[in-house]
Design goal:
By secondary structure, this protein is mainly alpha-helical. It has one domain: Homeodomain-like (Arc Repressor Mutant, subunit A, Orthogonal Bundle). Strand 1 and strand 2 form a beta hairpin. Its main location: nucleus. It is found in: Nucleus. This is Homeobox-leucine zipper protein HOX9. Keywords: DNA-binding, Homeobox, Nucleus.
């Protein structure tokens, strides 16, 4: 039997949780009549208040959404990290190109000065 604490929290037995999860897998949005039928069909849930079952389904849907959002967040995070790595490598390559061009420019300027002096 589900135990209710003074705060209104419910502690479900393992059998009740298994039954609720099985029902959730079949129908995550049960109507009031479907929840009544669930209680009628499942002895483990017969003593659980209708409102508690309704709230359990709401909480379970919220948990699903949270898990989905977390999975999407981690996917986006991995993509951002990969993009960051590529951009950092490209930036390093561009820095090296600029340094090479500056060195070449300095070399050419020095050669020009020497030629002008030799004229």
């Amino acid at each position: 039997m589900a135990n209710s604490g003074s705060s209104g929290n419910v502690t479900y037995t393992d059998k009740q949780l298994v039954a609720l999860e099985e029902m959730y897998a079949q129908c995550p949005y049960p109507s009031a009549s479907q929840r009544q039928q669930m209680k009628h069909d499942c002895l483990a849930l017969k003593d659980v208040e209708d409102e508690k079952i309704k709230v359990w389904f709401q909480n379970r849907r919220s948990l699903d959404k949270l898990e989905k959002d977390n999975a999407e967040f981690h996917l986006v995070r991995e993509r951002l990290i990969a993009t960051h790595t590529l951009l950092k490598e490209e930036n390093d390559n561009l820095k090296q190109t600029v340094m090479d061009l500056l060195y070449e420019n300095d070399y050419l300027q020095q050669n020009c000065r020497m030629r002008v002096k030799n004229l």
